[in-house]
C-alpha cells in the first residue's frame, strides 16, 4: 500500500501473527523527523480510526484509561490536569518484575499532538500524533484519522538500581526478552484503543514504520 504522498508502507492485521517488517527510513517518509542514533532505538507505528481528530484525541491523551488496553500496565496515577507539565506514574508488571515509570507531558497541541518524556531511570521520549485522513475512510464511515505512536529510548540507559531483578538475572537479559514482545504489545494496545474510540470491535491494521 502507499501513503498519502505515494510512498510505500507496510501493514499487518492486528492479531494475525505477522512478523515485524523492515524499517522504512530509506523511503523518505516525512514523519521520520528524528533519526535513530547509535544508542537510541525508535518505534514508529500507526493505525486508522474511523473518527475525526477531535473525537480521537481525548482518548489518546487519557492516560489513566490505558490499563484497559494492556495487561502489563496495572495502574496510572496523575499529578496535574493532563496538560503540559502533568506527571504520570505508570505501574508496570511483567514476569517477576515490577516498575513504576514516571512520565511528564512536555507539550499538548490538541487535537493533533501530545509529547512526553520519562523523567527518571531511563532515557525515553515520544509522541502521540493524530492526522486527519478522510480519504481512507470506508464507505460506512464519515471520516478517518491516522494515529501515530512514536517512542525513542536508550535501552541501556536504565538505572539498574531502580529495577529489582531476581538473582542471576541481568538487565541485558531483560532487554533481550522484552524487545521482541513490543510489537505484539503494540497490536493489543491499538486494537483495544480503536475499539474504545469507535465503540465497537473490528479488525484493525497496524502499520509498522520503524522498529528496533
Mean of the pLDDT scores?
80
Task: Give the class-level CATH name.
Answer: Alpha Beta
Count of the separate structural domains: 1
Shape label: globular
Q: Largest sheet, described in full?
A: 9 strands, antiparallel
DSSP strand content = 25-35%
N-to-C order of helices and strands: EEHEEEEEEHHE
Number of helices: 3
CATH superfamily: START domain
Number of strands: 9
Strand order of the largest sheet: 1-9-2-8-7-6-5-4-3
Instruction: Provide the helix percentage.
Output: 10-25%
End-to-end Cα distance, whole Å, is 22 Å
Structural commentary:
- The chain is α+β, with helices and mostly antiparallel strands.
- The chain has one domain: 2-Layer Sandwich (Alpha-D-Glucose-1,6-Bisphosphate, Chain A, domain 4), CATH 3.30.530.20.
- It is built from 3 helices and 9 strands.
- Strands 1-9-2-8-7-6-5-4-3 form a 9-stranded antiparallel sheet, covered by helices on one side.
- β4 and β5 form a beta hairpin.
- The chain is globular.
Characterize this entry briefly.
The chain has a single domain, classed as START domain (Alpha-D-Glucose-1,6-Bisphosphate, Chain A, domain 4), CATH 3.30.530.
Amino acid at each position: 500500500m502507499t501513503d498519502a504522498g505515494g510512498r510505500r508502507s507496510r501493514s499487518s492485521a492486528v492479531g494475525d501473527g505477522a512478523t515485524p517488517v523492515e524499517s522504512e527510513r530509506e523511503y523518505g517518509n516525512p514523519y521520520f523527523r528524528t533519526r535513530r542514533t547509535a544508542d537510541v532505538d525508535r518505534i514508529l507505528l500507526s493505525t486508522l480510526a474511523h473518527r475525526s481528530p477531535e473525537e480521537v484525541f481525548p482518548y489518546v491523551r487519557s492516560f489513566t484509561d490505558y490499563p484497559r488496553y494492556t495487561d502489563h500496565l496495572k495502574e496510572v496515577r496523575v499529578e496535574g490536569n493532563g496538560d503540559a507539565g502533568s506527571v504520570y506514574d505508570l505501574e508496570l508488571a511483567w514476569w517477576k518484575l515490577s516498575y513504576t515509570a514516571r512520565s511528564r507531558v512536555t507539550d499538548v497541541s490538541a487535537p493533533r499532538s501530545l509529547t512526553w518524556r520519562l523523567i527518571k531511570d531511563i532515557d525515553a521520549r515520544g509522541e502521540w500524533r493524530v492526522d486527519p485522513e478522510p480519504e481512507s475512510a470506508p464507505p460506512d464511515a464519515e471520516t478517518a484519522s491516522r494515529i501515530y505512536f512514536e517512542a525513542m529510548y536508550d535501552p541501556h540507559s536504565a538505572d539498574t538500581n531502580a529495577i529489582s531483578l531476581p538473582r542471576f538475572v541481568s538487565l541485558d537479559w531483560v532487554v533481550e526478552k522484552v524487545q521482541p514482545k513490543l510489537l505484539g504489545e503494540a497490536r493489543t494496545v491499538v486494537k483495544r484503543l480503536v475499539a474504545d474510540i469507535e465503540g465497537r470491535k473490528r479488525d484493525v491494521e497496524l502499520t509498522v514504520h520503524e522498529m528496533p
